[in-house]
Amino acid sequence: MTPPPDVRLVQLTRMLGLEPPMATDAEARTAVAAQPTEFAFALFLEAADSDDVTSVESALDYLEGRLSFFGAMVTSETADAVRAAFRARLKAWA
């Protein structure tokens, strides 16, 4: 019996609009590194849709929680680019 796919890979595939689904952490790292702005926008949309995000601070907390969830699938360099793009969206929204 084949184990179910890693939910993080499924989510990243959806968030980045990729087909076919990514199968490995390495594929995820490459895809996110190639599209940090798109990934940040997907995270921003999630945050905007969340009832728990009610302020700039809670949006940034949401971002950090999601980056932590994806763990090693997002390198520290890519995470910095995602944070910058997310903050730019947040600044325009706030």
Structural description of this entry:
Helix 4 packs antiparallel against helix 5 (76-93). The protein has one domain. 70% of the residues lie in helices and 0% in strands. It is an all-alpha fold. The longest helix is centred in the C-terminal third of the chain and has 18 residues, at 76-93. The model has no long low-confidence stretch (mean pLDDT 95). It has helices at residues 7-15, 25-34, 36-49, 56-70, 76-93.
The gist of it:
By secondary structure, this protein is mainly α. The model has no long low-confidence stretch (mean pLDDT 95).
Produce the secondary structure layout.
Elements: H1 7-15, H2 25-34, H3 36-49, H4 56-70, H5 76-93
Residue-averaged pLDDT, rounded?
Answer: 95
Low-pLDDT regions: none
Shape: globular
Work out the helix count.
5
Radius of gyration: 13 Å
Percent strand: under 5%
Which structural traits does this protein have?
94 residues, mainly alpha, 5 helices
